[in-house]
Give the backbone structure.
Amino acid sequence: MDAMMRANEASSQAYQEWQRELVRFITSRIQIDSRHIQQLVTCQNWADAARLHQDWALSAAQEFAKQANTLFQIASKIGTDLTTTPGRPNSAAAD
C-alpha cells in the first residue's frame, strides 16, 4: 500500500508538471503569434510579409517539435512513476 501511495504522489507531481508545461507553452505561443501578427501589419509589401510568415512558420514548427519531445519525456516519467517503486523496478503494478 505504501508503494502505491508513493507512486500516486510521484504521478500526481508529474501530471502537475505536464499541466505547467502546457500552460507555459500556450502562453509563449500566444505572445509569439501576437508579435507576428503585429509585424505582418507593418509589412510594406507582399514579399516582406511572405518572408516574415515563412520565418514564423519554420520557428513554430521547430517549437512544436521541441514541445512534443518535452511532453513525451514528461509522459514517460508518468509511466515510469506508475510502474516503479524506488528500489524495486516494476513493483508498483505487482503490489
The chain has a mean pLDDT of 86.
